[in-house]
TrEMBL record:
Superkingdom, taxonomy of origin: Bacteria
Stated name of the protein: Rhodanese family protein
Residues covered by the Rhodanese domain: 20-101
InterPro entries: GlpE_sulfurtransferase, Rhodanese-like_dom, Rhodanese-like_dom_sf
Matches recorded under Pfam families: Rhodanese
Length: 104
């Protein structure tokens, strides 16, 4: 069975907001500048260009978010290829209505 050939699962920002209280591992793949402008509190900033440097627990589900959902989809595919259980967040920070840290 070739799991890397299966599409990456995705959820909405609303579904992520419901989960984010449960200490989920969220990776924000936007640039450091975008991240500083406002991000989800527990999100870890790992820009898309450096996604291969991510070393999290393989048994932990990883939620990937960006600004609109395009970069996170690419990052999710790469993380899945690297053996992580990944879920892409559709709509990205553009759709996020929950609390943000940083920014103005």
């Amino acid at each position: 069975m070739f799991s890397f050939l299966q599409p990456v699962k995705s959820i909405s920002t609303k579904e992520l907001a419901d989960l984010s209280e449960k200490n989920s591992r969220i990776i924000d793949v936007r640039t450091p500048q975008e991240y500083r402008a406002g991000h989800i509190k527990q999100a870890l900033n790992v820009p898309l260009a450096k996604i291969d440097t991510y070393r999290g627990k393989k048994e932990e589900v990883v939620y990937v978010i960006c600004q609109s959902g395009m970069r996170s989809k690419q990052a999710a595919k790469q993380l899945k290829k690297n053996g992580y259980e990944v879920i892409n967040v559709r709509g990205g920070m553009n759709q996020w209505s929950g609390k943000k840290v940083g920014g103005r």
